[in-house]
Specification:
Blueprint: E1 7-12, H1 16-29, E2 37-43, H2 60-67, H3 71-77, E3 81-83, E4 85-89, E5 98-102, H4 114-120, H5 127-131, H6 134-139, E6 159-161, H7 164-177, E7 181-184, E8 187-192, E9 198-203, E10 208-210, E11 213-216, E12 233-235, E13 244-251, E14 264-269, E15 272-278, E16 282-289, H8 296-307, E17 316-320, E18 324-326, E19 330-331, E20 334-336, E21 342-343, H9 351-364, H10 373-399, H11 407-412, H12 420-429, H13 473-482, H14 487-494, H15 504-517, H16 521-529
Parallel strand pairs: 1-2, 1-11, 2-7, 4-14, 11-20
Antiparallel strand pairs: 3-6, 4-5, 8-9, 9-10, 12-18, 13-16, 13-17, 14-15, 15-16, 18-21, 19-20
This protein binds flavin-adenine dinucleotide.
Residues 12-18, 42-44, 47, 49-50, 52-56, 164, 186-187, 217-219, 221, 223, 245, 286, 319, 321, 338-340, 346, 349, 351-352, 355 line the site of flavin-adenine dinucleotide.
């Protein structure tokens, strides 16, 4: 490597993606004696942050650790609670059924054939409950930790629910206290170099901010990537129909159900689904739906009816979004992170994860010298691969439904709504359950050889390969078998037999221990973080 000076990095946009990038890049690149990046961030006082993004996945723990953030302090600052699972309600038949997608499970050693064994049984116990104690621990409303943070020996991986605006503010405070420069000003113009790269941005307040590397974190506006460089947005709405959310907050002063659930609930409604995210001071709700199937007013009515009479007086907000990604996440000397780069609808909470991955990958591919093209090439492949892998996984949640009660649910089952890659996976998994080997290259029989949208360089004709996807075979199994995949076929193939209780011993043991050592989630929040107590409300207990 050649001699270099610290690179000037300008992040435009101060939502969670902008401040996560600032804090993480600074923590990783400038940790030693010699700083590698001189980081500044400019955020507009005129354009509000999107303010949703309240549920996370466990990878957030890596980001917090790398920045050096204490977990309890973080939870206090962001109104945080624990998330151990997503509970899916009414996705299969709309008959009050549910299944969990928990974050941890036991594995059988040396050979894990849990799914094979379960498929050959009468399947009277939900699959998730045969491989993990977490669904029942969630139903019992328990925290994943003891009050004194002792290990329980029960594997309980967790992520967090949090206030997304407070998270961005907290990261901003950390980053600026460690040397990141913050400008509060609106970017009005962008200067280009002769080669077409970005040279500087100009602000309403008269600043001219130069850098060698620009990070576009301006949300869906994408003022650098789209408006300046003209990098196209690849639309993926064919596979994920939802494009709008009606959101609402239920302060506990107004309605407190008497507990704080240690998981996210995703309940399917007529034209999409509603998230329920419990924080320390309120519950957040959002009806994610397709504008082609329900108008805004009806969607709002449906959300209020779902929540109950106390929702009548609450304010609702509409958020529009689009599902897709930039043809190139890194173009020239500019990288789009956060909503400027890609978005997959909020099911499974992958928005912040994609910003987190983008930031981690940028530190790994950081351009110390001037030749950015090879780094950008790899970076773009990785980001596109991960995007499509997540798209498949979210697509899976919808297309196995057997609901036919509304036009939305009938539409979502049509063959053209299933991505070809997912179809190839499901065809394959009808021959054998998913296993780790399937994720070595994710190339399945019958899979079409689609080009990557990033260009026509050698290798770009190959279908995305993602051996390190966010969702491994264990998560796929939770959704497949939660949604009764192959249920009828298995009855015919295998008959109905009692499940061999291989893992159940561990699970019974965990369930016998858990209520003795793990407090209820709200009790943990009150005792450890000082969450206020609220009187329990009458009426629908959500
Ligand atoms: C309905 C919905 C629900 C979601 N739920 C989840 C979830 O549960 N979990 C999850 O992980 N993710 C979720 N997400 C995604 C999450 O909200 C985003 O990934 C995250 O908030 C990052 O947003 P951002 O920082 O990219 O953009 P924004 O928050 O929109 O920030 C954009 C920034 O750019 C600035 N800006 C814009 N124009 C200019 C300009 N001209 N000059 C200077 N600055 C400018 C703005 O002032 C702002 O600071 C959800 C998204 C939606 C739409």
């Amino acid at each position: 490597m050649t001699e270099f000076n610290p690179k000037r990095v300008l992040i435009v946009g101060g939502g969670s993606s902008g401040w996560m990038a600032a804090a993480y890049l600074n923590a990783v690149l400038n940790a030693g004696d010699r700083p590698f990046a001189q980081i500044a961030l400019v955020e507009s006082p005129d354009v509000p942050r999107i303010g949703v993004g309240e549920a996370t996945v466990p990878s957030i723990n890596h980001i917090l650790a790398a920045i050096g953030i204490d977990e309890l302090e973080f939870m206090r600052r962001v109104d945080g609670t624990y998330k151990q699972s997503i509970r899916y309600v009414n996705w299969l038949h709309n008959a009050g059924e549910h299944y969990h997608h928990p974050f941890s499970r036991y594995r059988l050693e040396p050979v894990d054939r849990s799914a094979d064994d379960w498929l050959r049984s009468d399947r009277s116990i939900p699959f998730a409950e045969t491989v993990s104690a977490q669904p029942i621990i969630c139903e019992l409303g328990l925290a994943p930790k003891t009050v004194d943070q002792r290990s329980t020996g029960i594997p309980l991986t967790y992520a967090f629910h949090m206030n997304a605006l407070k998270f961005a503010d907290y990261l901003s405070e950390i980053a600026t206290s460690r040397g990141v420069t913050r400008h509060v000003d609106h970017v009005v113009d962008v200067e280009r170099t002769e080669s077409g790269d970005i040279a500087a941005v100009k602000t309403k307040g008269g600043l001219r901010l130069e850098a060698e590397l620009f990070i576009d974190c301006t949300g869906f506006a994408a003022i650098l990537m789209e408006k300046t460089l003209g990098v196209a947005w690849v639309d993926c709405s064919q596979w994920l129909l939802c494009d709008r959310a009606i959101t609402m907050h239920v302060p506990y002063e107004q309605h407190y159900p008497g507990y704080v659930r240690p998981y996210t609930t995703a309940t399917a409604l007529s034209s999409g689904w509603v998230w329920e995210i419990p924080l320390q001071t309120k519950r957040s709700l959002g009806y994610v739906h397709s504008s082609a199937f329900i108008d805004e007013e009806k969607a709002e009515q449906e959300l209020r009816a779902f929540e109950g009479a106390h929702a009548e007086s609450l304010d609702a907000r509409t958020v529009h979004f689009k599902v897709g990604h930039r043809a190139k996440a890194w173009a020239g000397n500019c990288i789009a992170i956060g909503l400027a780069g890609s978005f997959i609808e909020p099911l499974e909470s992958t928005g912040l994860y994609l910003s987190d991955l983008a930031t981690v990958m940028l530190t790994e591919h950081f351009p110390y010298g001037d030749d950015m093209a090879p780094l950008a090439y790899r970076y773009n492949r990785i980001m596109a691969n991960r995007f499509y892998e997540i798209l498949d996984f979210i697509n899976l949640h919808y297309c196995l439904t057997r609901r036919s009660d509304t036009e939305f649910w009938r539409e979502i089952q049509k063959p053209e709504r299933m991505h070809d890659r997912l179809r190839a996976k499901l065809d394959f998994w009808s021959k054998k359950p998913p296993s780790a080997a399937d994720f070595e290259d994710q190339w399945f029989p019958g899979q079409p050889d689609t080009p990557l949208p990033s260009g026509n360089l050698p290798g770009d004709h190959r279908s995305p390969i993602d051996a390190k996807g966010l969702w491994n075979h264990e998560s796929y199994e939770m959704i497949l078998y939660g949604m009764d995949f192959l249920d009828q076929e298995c009855n015919e193939w295998f008959g109905k037999h009692r499940l061999k209780p291989q893992l159940l011993k561990n699970i019974f043991q965990a369930l016998a221990t858990a209520p003795r050592v793990l407090p209820e989630h709200q009790a943990w929040l009150q005792r450890v973080l000082g969450m206020r107590t609220y009187p329990t409300s009458q009426g629908k207990a959500n």
